[in-house]
Write a structure and sequence with these properties.
Shape: elongated
Helix content: 25-40%
Radius of gyration: 24 Å
CATH superfamily of the largest domain: Zn peptidases
Structural class: alpha/beta
Number of strands: 20
CATH class of the largest domain: Alpha Beta
CATH architecture of the largest domain: 3-Layer(aba) Sandwich
Number of helices: 15
Largest sheet: 9 strands, mixed
Amino acid sequence: MSLTLSQSANVSAAPQLIVLVNAGTDWKSIANIVDANLAKAAQQAFKDKRSTFVLNSATEALYIVNIDSKKQAYETLEAARKAGFGLNKQLNAAKVTDAALINATGNEDLCAAFVEGFALTNYEFLKYKVKDERKSLKKLTVATASLSKARLNEVNITVEAVGIAKTLINEPLSFLTAVQLGKEFKDIAAKGGFKAEVLDKKKIESLKMGGLLAVNRGSIDPPTFSVLEYKPAKSKNKQPIVLVGKGIVYDTGGLSLKPTPNSMDQMKCDMSGAACVGAVLYAVAKLKLPLHIIALVPATDNRPGENAYVPGDVITHMDGTTSEVLNTDAEGRLVLADALHYAKRYKPELVFDFATLTGAAMRTFGTQCSAMMGTASPETKAKLTNSAYNTFERIWELPLWDDYGAMLKSDVADMKNIGGELAGAITAGKYLEHFTDYPWIHLDIAGTAFTLGESDYRGKQGIGVGVRMMVDFLKNY
Protein backbone atom coordinates (compact mmCIF):
# COMPACT_ATOMS: atom_id res chain seq x y z
CA MET A 1 0.00 0.00 0.00
CA SER A 2 1.13 3.56 -0.66
CA LEU A 3 0.23 4.78 2.85
CA THR A 4 2.46 4.13 5.86
CA LEU A 5 0.69 3.76 9.21
CA SER A 6 2.78 4.58 12.27
CA GLN A 7 2.36 5.64 15.89
CA SER A 8 3.69 8.41 18.14
CA ALA A 9 3.05 9.36 21.76
CA ASN A 10 2.58 13.05 20.91
CA VAL A 11 1.07 14.20 17.61
CA SER A 12 -0.67 17.40 18.76
CA ALA A 13 1.90 19.64 17.04
CA ALA A 14 1.43 18.04 13.61
CA PRO A 15 0.63 20.64 10.91
CA GLN A 16 -2.20 18.45 9.59
CA LEU A 17 -4.04 17.08 12.63
CA ILE A 18 -7.19 14.96 12.53
CA VAL A 19 -9.33 14.65 15.64
CA LEU A 20 -12.16 12.11 15.77
CA VAL A 21 -15.13 13.21 17.87
CA ASN A 22 -18.63 11.96 18.68
CA ALA A 23 -21.40 12.51 21.19
CA GLY A 24 -19.22 11.06 23.95
CA THR A 25 -16.26 13.36 23.38
CA ASP A 26 -14.85 15.28 26.34
CA TRP A 27 -14.45 18.72 24.80
CA LYS A 28 -12.16 19.83 27.60
CA SER A 29 -9.67 17.28 26.28
CA ILE A 30 -9.79 18.99 22.87
CA ALA A 31 -8.87 22.26 24.56
CA ASN A 32 -5.74 20.53 25.87
CA ILE A 33 -4.76 19.63 22.32
CA VAL A 34 -5.39 22.85 20.41
CA ASP A 35 -5.92 26.54 20.97
CA ALA A 36 -8.93 27.29 23.22
CA ASN A 37 -10.65 29.42 20.55
CA LEU A 38 -10.23 26.62 18.01
CA ALA A 39 -11.63 24.12 20.49
CA LYS A 40 -14.64 26.35 21.08
CA ALA A 41 -15.23 26.75 17.34
CA ALA A 42 -14.93 22.99 16.90
CA GLN A 43 -17.50 22.32 19.60
CA GLN A 44 -19.92 24.78 17.99
CA ALA A 45 -19.45 23.15 14.62
CA PHE A 46 -20.18 19.80 16.24
CA LYS A 47 -23.39 21.19 17.74
CA ASP A 48 -24.34 22.42 14.25
CA LYS A 49 -23.96 18.79 13.08
CA ARG A 50 -21.24 19.53 10.57
CA SER A 51 -19.63 16.16 9.87
CA THR A 52 -16.09 17.07 8.81
CA PHE A 53 -14.77 20.60 9.10
CA VAL A 54 -11.41 22.34 8.92
CA LEU A 55 -10.21 24.89 11.44
CA ASN A 56 -7.02 26.82 10.62
CA SER A 57 -4.96 28.02 7.69
CA ALA A 58 -4.06 26.13 4.52
CA THR A 59 -0.59 25.24 5.80
CA GLU A 60 -1.63 24.19 9.31
CA ALA A 61 -5.02 22.56 9.58
CA LEU A 62 -7.10 20.92 12.26
CA TYR A 63 -9.67 18.48 10.87
CA ILE A 64 -12.49 17.71 13.28
CA VAL A 65 -14.29 14.56 12.12
CA ASN A 66 -17.65 13.85 13.72
CA ILE A 67 -18.66 10.19 13.68
CA ASP A 68 -22.43 10.21 14.09
CA SER A 69 -23.89 7.30 16.01
CA LYS A 70 -26.22 5.10 13.93
CA LYS A 71 -28.96 2.70 14.95
CA GLN A 72 -26.66 -0.30 14.72
CA ALA A 73 -23.05 -0.50 15.89
CA TYR A 74 -21.89 -1.91 12.53
CA GLU A 75 -23.49 1.06 10.75
CA THR A 76 -21.51 3.44 12.95
CA LEU A 77 -18.29 1.60 12.08
CA GLU A 78 -19.14 1.94 8.40
CA ALA A 79 -19.79 5.66 8.88
CA ALA A 80 -16.28 5.90 10.36
CA ARG A 81 -14.76 4.14 7.34
CA LYS A 82 -16.62 6.45 4.98
CA ALA A 83 -15.44 9.45 7.00
CA GLY A 84 -11.90 8.15 6.50
CA PHE A 85 -12.59 7.89 2.78
CA GLY A 86 -13.90 11.44 2.58
CA LEU A 87 -11.01 12.98 4.47
CA ASN A 88 -8.43 11.00 2.51
CA LYS A 89 -9.88 12.37 -0.73
CA GLN A 90 -9.82 15.88 0.70
CA LEU A 91 -6.19 15.65 1.83
CA ASN A 92 -5.00 14.17 -1.43
CA ALA A 93 -6.79 16.91 -3.35
CA ALA A 94 -4.91 19.44 -1.22
CA LYS A 95 -1.60 17.61 -1.95
CA VAL A 96 -1.03 16.86 1.73
CA THR A 97 1.78 14.33 2.25
CA ASP A 98 1.31 13.30 5.88
CA ALA A 99 -1.18 13.74 8.68
CA ALA A 100 -1.64 12.77 12.32
CA LEU A 101 -4.67 11.40 14.14
CA ILE A 102 -6.06 11.72 17.67
CA ASN A 103 -9.09 9.72 18.75
CA ALA A 104 -11.29 11.73 21.12
CA THR A 105 -14.30 9.39 20.91
CA GLY A 106 -13.13 6.98 23.61
CA ASN A 107 -13.98 4.14 21.21
CA GLU A 108 -11.04 2.19 19.77
CA ASP A 109 -13.26 0.34 17.28
CA LEU A 110 -14.34 3.65 15.73
CA CYS A 111 -10.75 4.77 15.42
CA ALA A 112 -9.69 1.47 13.83
CA ALA A 113 -12.56 1.70 11.33
CA PHE A 114 -11.65 5.29 10.44
CA VAL A 115 -8.00 4.37 9.88
CA GLU A 116 -9.06 1.36 7.82
CA GLY A 117 -11.28 3.45 5.52
CA PHE A 118 -8.61 6.15 5.31
CA ALA A 119 -5.87 3.67 4.38
CA LEU A 120 -7.98 1.60 1.95
CA THR A 121 -8.84 4.78 0.05
CA ASN A 122 -5.16 5.37 -0.65
CA TYR A 123 -4.83 2.17 -2.74
CA GLU A 124 -3.36 2.72 -6.19
CA PHE A 125 -2.89 0.50 -9.26
CA LEU A 126 -0.54 2.46 -11.49
CA LYS A 127 1.49 -0.29 -13.17
CA TYR A 128 0.21 0.56 -16.64
CA LYS A 129 0.07 4.36 -16.21
CA VAL A 130 2.70 6.35 -18.12
CA LYS A 131 1.72 9.63 -16.52
CA ASP A 132 2.59 9.99 -12.83
CA GLU A 133 -0.77 9.99 -11.03
CA ARG A 134 0.43 8.95 -7.58
CA LYS A 135 -1.48 10.24 -4.59
CA SER A 136 0.32 12.74 -2.38
CA LEU A 137 -0.55 11.13 0.97
CA LYS A 138 2.23 8.91 2.21
CA LYS A 139 1.91 8.71 5.99
CA LEU A 140 -0.67 8.70 8.78
CA THR A 141 0.63 8.86 12.35
CA VAL A 142 -1.82 7.69 15.01
CA ALA A 143 -1.49 8.83 18.61
CA THR A 144 -0.37 5.93 20.81
CA ALA A 145 -3.21 6.55 23.25
CA SER A 146 -5.79 6.42 20.45
CA LEU A 147 -5.14 2.92 19.17
CA SER A 148 -3.13 0.03 20.57
CA LYS A 149 -0.04 -1.13 18.71
CA ALA A 150 -1.62 -4.55 18.14
CA ARG A 151 -4.82 -3.06 16.74
CA LEU A 152 -2.96 -0.72 14.39
CA ASN A 153 -0.85 -3.66 13.20
CA GLU A 154 -4.02 -5.64 12.52
CA VAL A 155 -5.49 -2.79 10.48
CA ASN A 156 -2.23 -2.33 8.59
CA ILE A 157 -1.92 -6.02 7.66
CA THR A 158 -5.59 -6.30 6.71
CA VAL A 159 -5.37 -3.23 4.47
CA GLU A 160 -2.18 -4.62 2.91
CA ALA A 161 -3.92 -7.96 2.25
CA VAL A 162 -6.88 -6.22 0.60
CA GLY A 163 -4.38 -4.37 -1.59
CA ILE A 164 -2.80 -7.68 -2.63
CA ALA A 165 -6.20 -9.05 -3.64
CA LYS A 166 -7.16 -5.86 -5.51
CA THR A 167 -3.91 -5.85 -7.49
CA LEU A 168 -4.33 -9.48 -8.54
CA ILE A 169 -7.88 -8.72 -9.71
CA ASN A 170 -6.85 -5.56 -11.54
CA GLU A 171 -4.13 -7.29 -13.55
CA PRO A 172 -5.19 -8.10 -17.14
CA LEU A 173 -4.96 -11.56 -18.67
CA SER A 174 -2.05 -10.37 -20.81
CA PHE A 175 -0.06 -10.63 -17.57
CA LEU A 176 -2.05 -12.76 -15.15
CA THR A 177 -2.41 -16.16 -16.80
CA ALA A 178 -3.08 -19.22 -14.66
CA VAL A 179 0.66 -19.96 -14.64
CA GLN A 180 1.47 -16.39 -13.58
CA LEU A 181 -1.18 -16.55 -10.85
CA GLY A 182 0.70 -19.53 -9.41
CA LYS A 183 3.93 -17.52 -9.50
CA GLU A 184 2.22 -14.61 -7.75
CA PHE A 185 1.00 -16.93 -5.00
CA LYS A 186 4.56 -18.17 -4.46
CA ASP A 187 5.77 -14.59 -4.15
CA ILE A 188 2.95 -13.68 -1.74
CA ALA A 189 3.71 -16.82 0.30
CA ALA A 190 7.38 -15.90 0.55
CA LYS A 191 6.49 -12.42 1.81
CA GLY A 192 3.77 -13.66 4.14
CA GLY A 193 5.52 -16.66 5.61
CA PHE A 194 3.48 -19.64 4.42
CA LYS A 195 3.90 -22.48 1.92
CA ALA A 196 2.81 -22.49 -1.71
CA GLU A 197 2.84 -25.41 -4.13
CA VAL A 198 1.63 -25.02 -7.72
CA LEU A 199 0.54 -28.19 -9.52
CA ASP A 200 1.09 -28.17 -13.30
CA LYS A 201 -1.08 -29.63 -16.05
CA LYS A 202 0.62 -33.03 -15.93
CA LYS A 203 -0.13 -33.36 -12.22
CA ILE A 204 -3.70 -32.10 -12.73
CA GLU A 205 -4.17 -34.78 -15.40
CA SER A 206 -2.84 -37.46 -13.04
CA LEU A 207 -5.39 -36.33 -10.43
CA LYS A 208 -8.13 -36.60 -13.09
CA MET A 209 -9.54 -33.13 -12.42
CA GLY A 210 -11.96 -33.38 -15.32
CA GLY A 211 -13.72 -30.09 -14.64
CA LEU A 212 -10.58 -27.98 -14.63
CA LEU A 213 -9.16 -29.79 -17.65
CA ALA A 214 -12.39 -29.43 -19.64
CA VAL A 215 -12.57 -25.66 -19.12
CA ASN A 216 -8.89 -25.35 -20.04
CA ARG A 217 -9.31 -27.16 -23.38
CA GLY A 218 -10.14 -23.90 -25.17
CA SER A 219 -6.97 -22.16 -23.99
CA ILE A 220 -3.43 -22.07 -25.33
CA ASP A 221 -2.20 -21.61 -21.74
CA PRO A 222 -2.04 -24.55 -19.30
CA PRO A 223 -4.05 -24.69 -16.07
CA THR A 224 -2.61 -24.64 -12.57
CA PHE A 225 -3.82 -25.83 -9.18
CA SER A 226 -2.31 -23.90 -6.28
CA VAL A 227 -2.11 -25.30 -2.76
CA LEU A 228 -1.32 -22.68 -0.10
CA GLU A 229 -0.79 -23.68 3.53
CA TYR A 230 -0.21 -21.88 6.81
CA LYS A 231 0.42 -24.23 9.73
CA PRO A 232 1.78 -22.67 12.93
CA ALA A 233 3.48 -24.83 15.55
CA LYS A 234 0.46 -24.68 17.84
CA SER A 235 -2.89 -24.60 16.05
CA LYS A 236 -6.24 -24.29 17.81
CA ASN A 237 -7.93 -26.42 15.15
CA LYS A 238 -7.09 -30.14 15.02
CA GLN A 239 -8.14 -30.36 11.37
CA PRO A 240 -7.53 -27.56 8.87
CA ILE A 241 -9.88 -24.89 7.67
CA VAL A 242 -9.83 -24.94 3.85
CA LEU A 243 -10.51 -21.94 1.62
CA VAL A 244 -11.26 -22.59 -2.05
CA GLY A 245 -11.08 -19.75 -4.56
CA LYS A 246 -12.34 -19.73 -8.12
CA GLY A 247 -9.38 -18.88 -10.36
CA ILE A 248 -10.84 -18.23 -13.80
CA VAL A 249 -8.28 -15.61 -14.85
CA TYR A 250 -10.51 -14.57 -17.77
CA ASP A 251 -13.94 -15.74 -18.82
CA THR A 252 -15.19 -15.31 -22.36
CA GLY A 253 -17.98 -17.78 -21.67
CA GLY A 254 -16.27 -20.33 -23.90
CA LEU A 255 -18.39 -21.46 -26.84
CA SER A 256 -21.43 -20.15 -24.93
CA LEU A 257 -19.85 -16.78 -25.65
CA LYS A 258 -20.84 -13.80 -23.52
CA PRO A 259 -22.48 -10.94 -25.46
CA THR A 260 -20.58 -7.64 -25.46
CA PRO A 261 -20.35 -4.87 -24.39
CA ASN A 262 -20.74 -4.77 -20.61
CA SER A 263 -20.58 -8.51 -20.02
CA MET A 264 -17.13 -9.71 -21.05
CA ASP A 265 -15.32 -6.41 -20.50
CA GLN A 266 -14.67 -6.90 -16.79
CA MET A 267 -14.12 -10.66 -16.83
CA LYS A 268 -10.53 -10.33 -15.66
CA CYS A 269 -12.27 -10.21 -12.26
CA ASP A 270 -13.46 -13.83 -12.52
CA MET A 271 -10.55 -14.87 -10.31
CA SER A 272 -11.64 -12.62 -7.43
CA GLY A 273 -12.27 -15.69 -5.28
CA ALA A 274 -8.69 -16.83 -5.87
CA ALA A 275 -7.38 -13.37 -5.00
CA CYS A 276 -9.45 -13.39 -1.81
CA VAL A 277 -8.19 -16.70 -0.44
CA GLY A 278 -4.57 -15.92 -1.30
CA ALA A 279 -4.80 -12.56 0.46
CA VAL A 280 -6.50 -14.12 3.50
CA LEU A 281 -3.62 -16.60 3.85
CA TYR A 282 -1.19 -13.67 3.72
CA ALA A 283 -3.08 -11.80 6.46
CA VAL A 284 -3.45 -14.88 8.67
CA ALA A 285 0.26 -15.66 8.40
CA LYS A 286 1.37 -12.06 9.04
CA LEU A 287 -0.98 -11.80 12.03
CA LYS A 288 0.32 -15.17 13.26
CA LEU A 289 -3.16 -16.46 14.01
CA PRO A 290 -3.02 -19.88 15.74
CA LEU A 291 -4.94 -21.63 12.97
CA HIS A 292 -4.03 -24.28 10.40
CA ILE A 293 -5.44 -22.98 7.12
CA ILE A 294 -5.15 -24.26 3.55
CA ALA A 295 -6.20 -22.49 0.37
CA LEU A 296 -6.89 -24.26 -2.93
CA VAL A 297 -7.07 -22.44 -6.27
CA PRO A 298 -8.00 -24.18 -9.55
CA ALA A 299 -6.96 -21.75 -12.29
CA THR A 300 -7.42 -21.39 -16.04
CA ASP A 301 -8.98 -19.03 -18.53
CA ASN A 302 -12.20 -19.98 -20.33
CA ARG A 303 -11.91 -19.48 -24.09
CA PRO A 304 -13.61 -20.82 -27.23
CA GLY A 305 -10.37 -21.76 -29.03
CA GLU A 306 -8.19 -24.83 -29.48
CA ASN A 307 -10.20 -27.98 -28.73
CA ALA A 308 -12.78 -26.20 -26.58
CA TYR A 309 -15.38 -28.21 -24.74
CA VAL A 310 -18.86 -27.77 -26.19
CA PRO A 311 -22.46 -27.80 -24.94
CA GLY A 312 -23.52 -31.43 -24.86
CA ASP A 313 -20.12 -32.77 -23.81
CA VAL A 314 -19.97 -35.09 -20.81
CA ILE A 315 -17.03 -34.64 -18.46
CA THR A 316 -15.86 -36.76 -15.52
CA HIS A 317 -14.91 -34.99 -12.33
CA MET A 318 -12.11 -36.02 -9.98
CA ASP A 319 -14.53 -37.98 -7.77
CA GLY A 320 -15.91 -39.93 -10.75
CA THR A 321 -19.14 -37.93 -11.11
CA THR A 322 -20.14 -37.41 -14.74
CA SER A 323 -21.57 -34.05 -15.75
CA GLU A 324 -23.38 -33.00 -18.91
CA VAL A 325 -22.19 -29.55 -19.94
CA LEU A 326 -25.14 -27.57 -21.29
CA ASN A 327 -23.52 -24.15 -20.96
CA THR A 328 -19.76 -23.55 -21.14
CA ASP A 329 -20.26 -20.21 -19.37
CA ALA A 330 -21.21 -22.15 -16.21
CA GLU A 331 -17.54 -23.09 -15.91
CA GLY A 332 -16.79 -21.89 -12.39
CA ARG A 333 -18.68 -24.73 -10.75
CA LEU A 334 -16.77 -27.23 -12.89
CA VAL A 335 -13.34 -26.17 -11.62
CA LEU A 336 -14.56 -25.65 -8.05
CA ALA A 337 -16.07 -29.15 -7.97
CA ASP A 338 -12.65 -30.73 -8.41
CA ALA A 339 -11.12 -28.45 -5.77
CA LEU A 340 -13.90 -29.21 -3.28
CA HIS A 341 -13.34 -32.93 -3.79
CA TYR A 342 -9.56 -32.45 -3.44
CA ALA A 343 -10.23 -30.77 -0.06
CA LYS A 344 -11.58 -34.08 1.32
CA ARG A 345 -8.03 -35.43 1.63
CA TYR A 346 -7.43 -33.01 4.51
CA LYS A 347 -10.50 -34.14 6.47
CA PRO A 348 -11.23 -30.44 7.09
CA GLU A 349 -13.32 -29.20 9.97
CA LEU A 350 -14.68 -26.36 7.84
CA VAL A 351 -14.49 -25.34 4.16
CA PHE A 352 -15.32 -22.06 2.45
CA ASP A 353 -15.41 -21.34 -1.24
CA PHE A 354 -15.36 -17.87 -2.78
CA ALA A 355 -16.48 -17.45 -6.37
CA THR A 356 -17.81 -14.89 -8.81
CA LEU A 357 -20.18 -17.65 -9.78
CA THR A 358 -23.55 -16.46 -11.09
CA GLY A 359 -25.25 -13.46 -12.61
CA ALA A 360 -28.29 -14.69 -10.69
CA ALA A 361 -26.63 -13.77 -7.37
CA MET A 362 -25.89 -10.29 -8.71
CA ARG A 363 -29.47 -9.86 -9.92
CA THR A 364 -30.74 -10.98 -6.51
CA PHE A 365 -28.54 -8.83 -4.27
CA GLY A 366 -27.02 -6.22 -6.58
CA THR A 367 -23.60 -4.97 -5.52
CA GLN A 368 -24.56 -4.59 -1.85
CA CYS A 369 -24.45 -8.19 -0.69
CA SER A 370 -22.93 -11.61 -1.41
CA ALA A 371 -24.97 -14.81 -1.47
CA MET A 372 -24.24 -17.45 1.17
CA MET A 373 -25.23 -21.11 1.06
CA GLY A 374 -23.91 -24.17 2.80
CA THR A 375 -24.03 -27.07 5.23
CA ALA A 376 -22.00 -25.60 8.10
CA SER A 377 -23.66 -25.28 11.49
CA PRO A 378 -26.07 -22.42 12.21
CA GLU A 379 -23.56 -21.19 14.82
CA THR A 380 -20.77 -20.96 12.22
CA LYS A 381 -23.03 -19.18 9.76
CA ALA A 382 -24.10 -16.75 12.49
CA LYS A 383 -20.47 -15.96 13.37
CA LEU A 384 -19.62 -15.40 9.71
CA THR A 385 -22.67 -13.16 9.29
CA ASN A 386 -21.56 -11.16 12.32
CA SER A 387 -18.12 -10.68 10.76
CA ALA A 388 -19.80 -9.69 7.50
CA TYR A 389 -21.69 -6.93 9.29
CA ASN A 390 -18.63 -5.87 11.32
CA THR A 391 -16.72 -5.28 8.09
CA PHE A 392 -19.75 -4.22 6.04
CA GLU A 393 -19.10 -7.04 3.58
CA ARG A 394 -22.65 -8.22 4.02
CA ILE A 395 -23.92 -11.70 3.17
CA TRP A 396 -27.36 -13.31 3.08
CA GLU A 397 -28.23 -17.00 3.12
CA LEU A 398 -30.13 -18.77 0.36
CA PRO A 399 -31.62 -22.26 0.88
CA LEU A 400 -30.14 -25.50 -0.47
CA TRP A 401 -33.34 -27.55 -0.50
CA ASP A 402 -33.37 -30.89 -2.31
CA ASP A 403 -35.94 -29.52 -4.77
CA TYR A 404 -33.17 -27.43 -6.33
CA GLY A 405 -30.93 -30.47 -6.70
CA ALA A 406 -33.61 -32.18 -8.77
CA MET A 407 -33.22 -29.37 -11.32
CA LEU A 408 -29.68 -30.64 -12.03
CA LYS A 409 -30.71 -34.16 -13.09
CA SER A 410 -29.43 -35.14 -16.54
CA ASP A 411 -30.78 -37.64 -19.04
CA VAL A 412 -27.29 -38.72 -20.10
CA ALA A 413 -25.02 -38.16 -17.07
CA ASP A 414 -25.08 -38.05 -13.28
CA MET A 415 -25.68 -34.29 -13.35
CA LYS A 416 -25.92 -31.35 -15.71
CA ASN A 417 -24.06 -28.13 -15.08
CA ILE A 418 -27.05 -25.78 -15.18
CA GLY A 419 -30.50 -26.06 -13.70
CA GLY A 420 -32.49 -23.90 -16.10
CA GLU A 421 -33.62 -20.29 -16.09
CA LEU A 422 -34.79 -20.13 -12.47
CA ALA A 423 -32.88 -20.09 -9.16
CA GLY A 424 -29.50 -19.96 -10.91
CA ALA A 425 -27.47 -18.98 -7.84
CA ILE A 426 -28.98 -21.79 -5.77
CA THR A 427 -28.66 -24.54 -8.39
CA ALA A 428 -25.00 -23.54 -8.78
CA GLY A 429 -24.64 -23.98 -5.02
CA LYS A 430 -26.38 -27.37 -5.20
CA TYR A 431 -23.93 -28.44 -7.90
CA LEU A 432 -21.02 -27.64 -5.57
CA GLU A 433 -22.68 -29.28 -2.57
CA HIS A 434 -22.56 -32.64 -4.37
CA PHE A 435 -18.75 -32.64 -4.04
CA THR A 436 -18.63 -31.95 -0.29
CA ASP A 437 -18.86 -34.24 2.73
CA TYR A 438 -17.77 -31.73 5.39
CA PRO A 439 -19.17 -28.53 6.94
CA TRP A 440 -19.11 -26.08 4.06
CA ILE A 441 -20.03 -22.48 3.18
CA HIS A 442 -20.32 -21.22 -0.38
CA LEU A 443 -20.04 -17.48 -1.04
CA ASP A 444 -21.13 -16.17 -4.43
CA ILE A 445 -19.40 -12.79 -4.75
CA ALA A 446 -20.42 -12.06 -8.35
CA GLY A 447 -22.04 -8.74 -7.48
CA THR A 448 -19.59 -7.52 -4.85
CA ALA A 449 -16.17 -8.33 -6.34
CA PHE A 450 -15.77 -5.60 -8.96
CA THR A 451 -17.07 -2.15 -9.78
CA LEU A 452 -16.59 0.23 -12.70
CA GLY A 453 -17.46 3.30 -10.62
CA GLU A 454 -15.84 4.49 -7.40
CA SER A 455 -17.36 2.72 -4.41
CA ASP A 456 -16.17 4.92 -1.52
CA TYR A 457 -13.14 3.44 0.30
CA ARG A 458 -13.47 0.23 -1.71
CA GLY A 459 -12.29 2.08 -4.81
CA LYS A 460 -12.75 1.15 -8.47
CA GLN A 461 -12.39 -2.18 -10.27
CA GLY A 462 -11.19 -4.99 -7.98
CA ILE A 463 -12.69 -4.70 -4.48
CA GLY A 464 -10.91 -7.53 -2.66
CA VAL A 465 -14.24 -8.48 -1.12
CA GLY A 466 -14.18 -11.22 1.50
CA VAL A 467 -10.69 -10.50 2.80
CA ARG A 468 -11.71 -8.22 5.68
CA MET A 469 -14.68 -10.42 6.57
CA MET A 470 -12.56 -13.58 6.75
CA VAL A 471 -9.79 -11.91 8.76
CA ASP A 472 -12.42 -10.81 11.28
CA PHE A 473 -13.99 -14.29 11.32
CA LEU A 474 -10.71 -16.15 11.70
CA LYS A 475 -9.23 -13.92 14.40
CA ASN A 476 -12.36 -14.68 16.47
CA TYR A 477 -12.55 -18.35 15.49
